[in-house]
Design goal:
Plays a role in synthesis, processing and/or stability of 23S rRNA. Belongs to the DUF177 domain family. One of its GO terms (biological process) is ribosome biogenesis. The strands form 2 sheets. Strands 2, 3, 4, 5, 6 and 7 form a 6-stranded mixed sheet that branches. Strands 1-8 form a two-stranded antiparallel sheet. The chain is mainly beta. The chain has one domain. The radius of gyration is 19 Å and the shape is elongated. Helices cover 11% and strands 36% of the residues. The chain has 2 helices and 8 strands; from the N terminus they run E-E-H-E-E-E-E-E-E-H.
Length: 151
Amino acid sequence: MQRPLPVWIDLARARAKQQLDGSVAGERMPRLSEAGVELLRPAEVSVCLTVPEFRSDARPAEVSGRIVALASLQCQRCMGSMEHRIESQVFWQLVASDSTEVDEDAEPIVLEGDRFELLEAVTDELLLAVPSYPRHAECALPGTHSGSDDN
């Protein structure tokens, strides 16, 4: 079992480059359950944090890596439970304002000071990876049956 992921990181005290591997239980991310997403097991997070020696808007701190989770969602067609695997590659640049330009393939995360809310960023990423209209691949509408008619 991996150790729990930290809630936040102080970039002013962080090492120049560090690997962060850990797990996040669903109970630590209440916004997931509020959105109807239940994690069937803790999300596995593996990210590398790179903090330049002289961090600025031109040289922001970066986080790259992967988040993997197995979620239980409600099928919007039959209203039954369904499993959905989430596997998300992340590349975040940690900037001071939303007007800061970031690399084309990066997602900006605006910081207040030197505190990077890692757990909130992971929660956001999981919520963005959930389909807006989850449904089973093969699913009948409520009140109907699947299969052939005998008539």
